[in-house]
Specification:
By secondary structure, the chain is mainly alpha-helical. It is about 65% helix and about 5% strand.
């Protein structure tokens, strides 16, 4: 329960893991009609939510729930926005490399489960499929099912924990397939060494590719001139509606001039008169009731800055 409270407070999308855990345990309690266990689970879940809410109370009281839920990683996206982000994610290099392997393991485990249901597996393997494989499948897939149903796009790192459950499924498949392989030990060692080498090379390529994208393809370093220009202008609150732009402008502003009293927000706060609007270059300067005073006062290939009336 303590880990649940701290997890929710540290990373709100830890709720995906908690829902997976409480969901599986709750279903098992219902199946066995263990009402006392179900009651304890409900009590522990309620206390976990209450504890996290207590830790969030200062933020909620001072800033309101809107600031917490405005984060695009926890709020529901519109259907077009979610579909666009999903398709962009699927076209990333590491997803394209991993997706065939993931599908192969899932299909293979489906076959394994079918054989277990037909009593065509040894007793030990059938027991492992039921007691180990099915929970692993639940923990590996439920976070994605929830994300699809809620149309939220959590950071990938928050789903990293499900990799261990995926490898449990892969291990069950390997254990099943090993009974059909009658290779000498030397040949098996060579095959494992080749597979390890292929995996290491693929990971090296991914790191090299991702570093090149971060250094040259995303253009994050082009935010530094924006902050340099702001330092030459009269000080005033800055509005950066896009979350990525907010992070980048804040990073270069606070790391470059920490002594300056910066105010950089991603949405208008009540009572604050913003002086500058930071947007993607070429994007329509639509910021609700905010009006820009003419063309961009500063512009590069990545971002542009408007002076607000």
């Amino acid at each position: 329960m303590l880990s649940g409270v701290l997890g929710l407070y540290t990373v709100p999308v830890h709720s995906f893991f908690l829902l997976s855990a409480y969901g599986w345990l709750g279903l098992q309690a219902l199946r066995r009609r263990a009402w006392a266990r179900l009651g304890r689970l409900a009590a522990m879940g309620s206390l976990t939510v209450a504890g996290a809410a207590l830790l969030y109370a200062p933020l909620l009281l001072v800033s309101g729930p809107g600031l917490l839920l405005h984060n695009r990683f926890v709020r529901a996206l519109s259907a077009p926005e979610y579909r666009r982000d999903l398709l962009e994610g699927l076209h990333m290099a590491h997803h394209l490399l991993a997706l065939p392997l993931v599908l192969a393991v899932l299909l293979g485990f489906g076959r394994l489960w079918y054989l277990a249901r037909q009593h065509r597996l040894p007793a030990r393997q059938a027991w492992l499929v039921d007691r180990l494989g099915l929970p692993a499948l639940w923990f590996a897939l439920l976070p994605y099912a929830l994300a699809l149903a809620l149309r939220v796009q959590p950071p990938e790192r928050t789903f990293l924990y499900k990799a261990q459950y995926f490898f449990i499924l892969a291990a069950l498949l390997a254990d099943w397939a090993a009974q059909f392989v009658r290779w000498p030990a030397a040949r098996l060692r060579v095959v494992l060494a080749v597979l390890t080498l292929v995996f290491a090379l693929s990971q090296t390529w991914q790191v090299y590719h991702q570093e090149a994208v971060l250094r040259t393809g995303l253009g994050w370093q082009r935010t530094a001139p924006v902050v340099s220009w702001l330092l030459t202008q009269p000080p005033g609150p800055v509005l950066a509606p896009e979350l990525l732009h907010l992070f980048l402008v804040r990073f270069y502003a606070y790391s470059g001039q920490p002594a300056r009293a910066w105010q950089i927000d991603d949405r208008p706060r009540p009572g604050v008169r913003y002086r500058y609007l930071v947007r993607q270059t070429g994007a329509a300067p639509d910021a609700g009731r905010l009006r820009v005073a003419g063309p961009p006062a500063f512009q590069n290939s990545f971002l542009e800055v408007f002076v607000l009336e």
